[in-house]
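Reopening: Response regulator transcription factor still failing for me.
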Amino acid sequence: MKILLVEDDMDLAGGLIKALRREGFTVNHVALGKQAILSVRSEPPDLLVLDLGLPDITGLQVLESVRSLKLALPVLILTARDGLDDKVMALDSGADDYLSKPFEMEELLARLRVLARRLGTSMHSKIELHGVLLDTRHHEVAVAGQPINLSRREYMLLMALMENAGRVQTKEMLEQKLYGWGEEVVSNAIEVHVSNLRKKMPADLIKTVRGVGYTISKTRA
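Support: Ran it again with your exact input. Result attached.
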């Protein structure tokens, strides 16, 4: 799941990026409101975490522009402004949730899970296919009841394929889900991750659609 973080405090942004990536999110970050609008238009994220006090335009202006695009994009306001009027204005302007700084990371993650549920994603629950159980809340994987250790990107790859079971995921789609801006992606990175993941999964779980990408079927052949 991809998050766009709009935050001009670079120290806070750096800490959030590290924490969110540890939780299995792909995170892109911008510090300016106009950059955020361009990013949403060109590459819509799954979730938007938005500060109100930005250097160029206000977070509310960003929110207004984003909502004009008519996207089903959950928006969490993350700001030091904790007055009731600020909260009401943000929520009335189209925000889905509002979290005041300072905050605990666990609360932020819980609120993101709530927003993900509104998207109809399975990030908050468990997915089971062909003897593989993926617990997307606790980031645990089991095969035939036995826990399996996966790297962060192996886990993200498996989640992307299982959440989209029955649909082919292209290499480009998977790269976007596994890597954020500025992260180096070698040309065969997805192929390597798929190869490593296959060694830990049941035979034929991940199928190659030649010239297109990869998929996991919803039902057994």
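The chain has two domains: 2-118, 126-215. If you still see a failure, please send the error message rather than a screenshot.
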